[in-house]
Amino acid sequence: MAAEQQSYDSVSADYFARRGLRRYAGVASLWALGVGAVISGHYSGWNLGLLAGGWGGLALATLVIAAMYLGLVFCIAEMGAALPHTGGAYSFARASMGPWGGFITGLCENVEYVLTPAVVVSFLATYLAAVFDTPAAWLPAYWVGGYVVFVALNVFGVELSFRVTVIVTLAALACLAVFWISALPVAEFSRYALNIGVGPDGAAVELPQGNGPLLPFGLEGVFRALPFAVWLFLAIEQLPLAAEESTDPSRDMPRGIIAGLLTLFVSAGLILWLNPSVAPGAFKLAVSGEPLLDGFRATFGEGLAKLLALVACVGLIASFHTILFAKGRQIYSLSRAGYFPRFLSITHARHKTPYVALIAGSALALVIMFVLWFGMGAEKGAAAIQGMLLNMAVAGAMLSYLLQAISFIVLRRRLPGLKRPYRSPLGVAGAVVTLVIAIVTLVFQLLDPIFAAGVFWVGVWFVLGVIWFALVGQNRLVKAPEEAFAIEASRR
Tens digits of per-residue pLDDT, 98-108? Predict the structure, then answer.
């Protein structure tokens, strides 16, 4: 590291005063933030992997991805306790790989946190349109309304934001629990979950009586299902972004993120087992935009469909609200240190929330959604937009995981004496597992033409970001807390 060689701009005395945050979150709030961010992935999105690998292929892919997240979460728990800064992944990479490493890692997370809420709000709009019989042409109105309401909730104080997070996360889990309990008596695993076969042309076909092969597409199907299994855990890694709003991050951050991941392991296992095990079965579920609602229809009947659709919105709201929180803090931290334009890190004078970052990030997401809506053609429907945005978000996440695993390994080797209130039980081996699985997942994204299109636009995002940092950003850095830590660590 050559952190001490980096020059920094002098800032006025009130620079950090105008960018202050307020501490509030404990273990329960951090747990809810992690689980809430992910939980919508148990409502929609994961099911697309059924057509890629069949039930068995998706199940094995989920186990592989779960191993990746276990290694990642242990790495983050250790680094987040040792470097309790709002920067999260950027601050880890900054301390281990210098300003450029920090910026690139931050840019990866920026892609993920700007676009993931856009995916979730598009799913939410689809559900609400079904409930209120809204024409498809009006879906963008739900997007705008969702952003306005939940950006406002995030702006009006960290206390309110975390209270809403806890409530909607518990409600989302309760909704899933009702489905699990209702599905258990009627589940027919062999008939419904194993109703995907392979036709003469190699394409998936429906087996009306079920009892098909566990791995209809063989091991290749397992690899093809990896990117879809990510949706069951995507965004759990956002917890370190709340470090400077946690009352005791060195103690509470590891507890919150590990408890959150264990909760998601249980929920993911139950939804993967029970949702495809009831009508209409895995084949039809694989192309559904509302798989949990389809499961409710099978257990409670069509008459309750609209009410159940409203209930299912709770999970989408939980993720939308919590990832908006993460997006605001992620843009704020990079801006406060000068990597992004500095005005983005100004916080609300009364509520001490990064309102400029929240509004700017949300405006960018809406612009991208409208460009896709008019560029791809509204007639293609929300599904095409959801697919493109999801692919881009997953690509950004995989690149971020790669760099966070590398950051962990470098910090272990270069700073062995760093005070670590929590140490990963998997050590460097866990980081290596995360690294390998993330690379494999990214490779199979690139092999899929649909995913590849999303990765291409992520590349465009990166090129623009790198040009900005090379010409402007690296010459306007500010000695924020994570920057000061990196300098001191490199001197030691």
Answer: 999 999 999 99
